[in-house]
Amino acid sequence: MSTPLTWDLGLVTVRRVGPEEAPTVLDIVQEAFGARPPLDPPAAALQETEETIATRLSSYGGLVASVDDRPVGALVMDPVGHTVYLRRFAVRPEAQQHGVAHAMVAAAVEAADGFADLTVIAREELPHNVRFWEKQGFHEVARHSPDIELRRPLRTHVVEVPQPDEMRELGERLATQLRAGDLLVLTGELGAGKTTFTQGLGTGLGVRGAVTSPTFVIARVHPSEVGGPALVHVDAYRLGGGSDPRAELDDLDLDADLDAAVTVVEWGEGLAEGLAESRLEIRIVRALTVDELIDDRDPRRVEITPVGPRWHDVDWSAVDADLHHEGATH
């Protein structure tokens, strides 16, 4: 049966449902999947009946999204081990491109509290759908043609950043949650906004000196001007790649104690495990493909994944206030 749990996300309201809502879910699924291009083999969703949908909903339920009280989106939640599969994810054609799918993902993140991650299955023949999931923070973990399995850790906090000024503001707000000894591992392609984000961190921490790319100096130390931790900004791409990256940093003879500083390591994937047990892994990616760009808009998606016990008490609402986010950290 339906639970009273609902999410009001702007114009979209998402509610938790059970087997009694099988007719509603089936109607949305049939309309959405029926409007897709023909696939070979056909989507299994087209073979669903009220009985099979009711059976699926009897385990962990599902979600129905409504606009102006009209149901326009639905999905079934299927827990398997530590993950929750989002199955029969469907939005009526006339309601697509209006934020319904985004709202359903955000609600699914909340509804799956206690699980490790969310998983979806997408079709290779539908690259637009694959791109949507990637924009929600999902990453490919397996491929069995024509199916692609994508997964998003539930602890990942996803923020959409439309403009560079807002990237800087995001960094500034995150700085309010940081303390001495914290490590941030920052990745993203050239021009993604890593330095802009770090400039915001420097402003929020109140450090001295202009924060620029550390490419030509490997590392820079920015002392605090407000009695807080210094900011150590490192280009891991130019470290030696040895078995002890912490020792390599120490060998740089930085004028800062890393345990008394906030350390930001660019291009740090693969090195983080040797630097600290607790860290923030931050990935910045372009939210749109080249053919999706409109005018000068080139928004970014920032994926913040906390690792370790240090981050259990972080107030994420203070970090992304007034910015668009796709789910909270668990």
Structure commentary:
An eight-stranded mixed sheet has the order 1-2-3-4-5-6-8-7, with helices on both faces. Strands 11-12-13-10-14-15-9-16 form an eight-stranded mixed sheet, with helices on one face. Helix 1 crosses helix 2. A hairpin with a 2-residue loop joins strand 7 and strand 8. By secondary structure, it is α+β, with helices and mostly antiparallel strands. The C terminus is likely disordered. The chain is built from eight helices and 16 strands. The chain is elongated.
Overview features:
330 residues; alpha+beta; Aminopeptidase; Rossmann fold; 2 domains; eight-stranded mixed β-sheet; 16 strands
Give the total of domains: 2
Computed CA radius of gyration, to the nearest angstrom: 22 Å
- Form type: elongated
Strand order of the largest sheet: 1-2-3-4-5-6-8-7
- Secondary structure category: alpha+beta
Q: Report the strand count.
A: 16
Mean pLDDT rating = 85
Q: What is the chain-wise order of helices and strands?
A: EEHHEEEHEHEEEHEHEEHEEEHE
CATH architectural name of the largest domain: 3-Layer(aba) Sandwich
Biggest sheet record: 8 strands, mixed
Beta content: 25-35%
Level of helix content?
Answer: 10-25%
**Through-space gap between termini:** 26 Å
Could you give me the name of the CATH homologous superfamily of the largest domain? Answer: P-loop containing nucleotide triphosphate hydrolases
Number of contiguous helices: 8
Reported by name, the CATH topology of the largest domain is Rossmann fold
Level-1 CATH class name of the largest domain? Alpha Beta
Q: What are the segments in which pLDDT stays under 50 over at least 5 consecutive residues?
A: 326-330
